[in-house]
Every structure is written in C-alpha cells, then in structure tokens.
Amino acid sequence: MITRCVRWIPLFCFSFSGFGQPAPAPDRRITLDVMVADKSGKPVSGLEQKDFTLLDNKQPQNILSFQAVNGAVADPPVEVVLVTDEVNTNFTNVSTERQQIDKFLEHSGGELPRPVTIAFLTDAGMKIGNVTTQDGKALAAELDQNKASLRSITRDQGFYGAADRVGLSLNALQQLAVYETPRPGRKLVIWVSPGWPFLTGPRENLTSKEQQGIFQQIVAISDALRRARITLYSVDPLGTNDAGGSQTYYYQDFVKGVKKSAQAQIGNLALQAIAIQTGGRVLNSNNDVAGEIANDVADANAFYVLTFDGLPGDGPNEYHSLEIKLDRPGSKALTRTGYYAQPAR
C-alpha cells in the first residue's frame, strides 16, 4: 500500500485568456504509451519493435527505445486514478455513480489488478485521496467517508452555471496532470462523468481573443497530460439514460488536433475529445458502469512504451499529428494522437 496526505488541488478562475503560465522549455524526447487492440478491443501482447511504424506529421520517425510491458509486472506499476465527478453529474445521479464505483472496488473480493487512487471533484476543487492501493475494500471505505455534498454550482443554473462548471473542470484536469507529472510510470485517469458542458458549437462566432485563449488552454492541457503520461478515459455514469443525447456523439466533431487559434472552439476542450486525444476511450450508453471501469483498467494488461525525438516547430505551439501503423492485420494502436512542438533553442 502506498499512502500519502490528502491534498486539495487549488482551482483557478476560468477565462478565455488561458492559464497564464509560460510554456515549458522544449523537451523533444517524447514517450508514447501504446495499447494495441484486437478486433474485440482486447490488448494484444507479444509484438516487437519491427511491428511498429511511427509517423510524425506523416513522416516516419526513428523509434529510439521500445519496451513491451506486461501490466501485471510493470515497474513502476501502472496507477489508476478514479475520478468521482460531483460537479457535472446531476446530484440525484451522484449516488448511482458512487454505487457503480463501489461495485468495481468490491469486485473479486476487493482485490484490484492495479494500484488505484480515488479523486473527488467538488465545488471546492479536486481532492486526491490519501491512499494508493490494490485493496478495493479500503478504497470503498474512503469513498464512503467522502460523502457527496450539495453544490453551489448546479446543472440547472443556465449559461453562467455551465461556464463555471467548465472552468472548474478544466482547471482541475490540468492541475491533476501537473500533480501527477513527478510520479513515475503510466497513469490511467478514469473520469466518471457525463462530461462538462459544451458552450459553443462548430458554427459559433467567437472573437479572436476568445479563440486565442481557448487555444492556449488546449496546448497547456495537451502538454501537461503528455508529460504526466496520462491516458484519459471518459465513462458516462448516466448509462442508457444518456443514450442518444448530444453528449454521446457531439464530441466527435472536436477530436482532431487544433493547429491554430482560428480553429479553436470550447468543444475542443470537452472531456471526451481530450480522452480520445490521449489514446483513451469514451464509454457511454451502458448501465454497467462498473464493468466499463474494469474494461478501462484491463487496457493496461499489455502495452508498449516507445520513445522518439519530436521534430522542432517552425513556430510556437506547432501541432504535430502522430500515427502508429502496425504490421498486424486487424489490430489497432491506441495512443496519443498529437503534440505541440516548440522552436529549437
């Protein structure tokens, strides 16, 4: 069992002006965690470096190091961060969300396959639990001790309530990534939530200043998640109650990498869109939320770690798309879909 002090991650006021922090010095060495899935979606093991071709902006790149990882004996072990979202979930449905998380934790007698940390997103911020462990019963007790409370920001407060929830959620995600960056190894962050609101669509008119602010946030979150080696998963606790709603498919309009500020929309910062961009998955319209969480954790049963030197950008925040082609018919590689390069210094 790994213990740590309970910590509250501070939140910053959301605005279209971005996080206001200077970009870090360029670090060209990039680590990619790659899960190869078969036709049924299960991880494929036993591949070698020769089976992988890495493309950066459609140009083949040298793979500097390659490691095939058996998740059961990974060193350091893959950590799972299970986020209970009590801001974007209707208060009535938070209890269902918690019941499903508890069901996952108590499955198989409470013996979890990976170390798990529970985090709680509330109006006060992101609270990181005080234990990282494979003891599901201990985590279930911690979940029970952190009771859901009434929110000052609710889903029915109209535009301004929605804007507050977006800002609170984005800042919590970015700060969680910063918190996890010094911790070694890969992390699977499973965010149990219907997602934060979409305030604009692809045809909304934004000022250039607003788009520049959104673009800065896109870059900041993308870079922070990459450096932390976080693969993000979005699991909708509403199940079939949300089936057919816009939240279940609208994010697909925003999953492509944003190359310049003139393309930026708040939808590019949707939980689901960010999850796809990290190599994670979006799971919705299924009432077996506990099973969905277990499937996400199983993605770490076998994966591959590749490193390469990213290309320098011709200018600041130059978007580079990433693609991995496999010499294995019927298989699909899930990994980060791109990164933002900086000029060489």
Describe it for me?
- There is one protein chain.
- The protein has one domain (8-28, 73-301): Rossmann fold.
- The strands form three sheets. Strands 1, 2, 7, 8, 9, 10, 11, 12 and 13 form a nine-stranded mixed β-sheet that branches. The protein has a four-stranded antiparallel β-sheet with strand order 6-14-3-16, with no helix packed on it. It has a four-stranded antiparallel β-sheet with strand order 5-4-15-17.
- Mean pLDDT is 88; it is low at 1-22.
- Strand 8 (111-122) and strand 9 (125-128) form a beta hairpin.
- Helix 3 runs parallel beside helix 4 (208-228).
- The chain is α+β, with helices and mostly antiparallel strands and 345 residues long.
- It is built from six helices and 17 strands.
- It is globular, with a radius of gyration of 19 Å.
Q: Can you lay out the helices and strands and say which pair or pack?
A:
Elements: E1 2-3, E2 7-9, E3 29-37, E4 52-56, E5 59-61, E6 65-70, E7 79-85, H1 91-106, E8 111-122, E9 125-128, E10 131-135, H2 136-145, H3 158-180, E11 187-192, H4 208-228, E12 230-235, H5 271-277, E13 282-283, H6 289-298, E14 302-309, E15 318-326, E16 332-334, E17 338-341
Helix pairs in contact: 1-2, 1-6, 3-4
Q: So what's the oligomer here? A: single chain
Category by helix and strand content? alpha+beta
Overall structural domain count: 1
Give the mean pLDDT.
Answer: 88
